[in-house]
Design goal:
The chain is mostly helical. The chain has one domain (about 5-105). The protein has helices spanning about 15-20, 45-55, 65-85, 95-105, and strands at about 5-10, 30-35. The protein has a two-stranded antiparallel ribbon. The longest helix is centred in the middle third of the chain and has 20 residues, at about 65-85.
Length: about 120
């Protein structure tokens, strides 16, 4: 929101804290730590600028397309593995993945939800 990265370190392991705390609403203590960031342009505007400069002036790409394809392939593997409830290879079997997408499209239904507000912590 304010252009700053905020990092909060936990004083304890959350799992251990939950197991050992007697306070139902207890919270792990946190401390805010400063994170040094490079002072540079970022975001879509910078990526597009870099892409154009790569074409026009040979500037090295900040985010090459093949890296993006690897990320998409990884996500596809996560989806397929989760739906099969079994490990899958990367790259995923294209025919199997396309069959999954077809099945999901055919069985997809519009989800109607009511806005629900649950208050579980009396302090908030």
């Amino acid at each position: 929101m304010d252009g700053q990265l905020k990092y909060y370190a936990l004083s304890d392991n959350v799992t251990e804290f939950v197991k050992s705390s007697d306070d139902m609403w207890g919270q792990v203590k946190t401390s805010r730590e400063k994170v040094a960031l490079a002072d540079c342009e970022s975001g879509h505007k910078e990526l597009i600028r870099n892409f154009c400069r790569s074409i026009m002036h040979g500037e090295e790409l900040v985010s090459p397309g093949d890296e993006g394809l690897k990320a998409v392939e990884f996500i596809n593997a996560l989806i397929l593995s989760g739906k099969k409830n079994a490990p899958v290879n990367i790259p995923v079997d294209r025919a199997e993945y396309e069959a999954l997408l077809k099945k999901l499209r055919e069985t997809s239904k519009r989800k109607v939800t009511a806005k629900t507000k649950r208050v579980t912590d009396p302090r908030h």
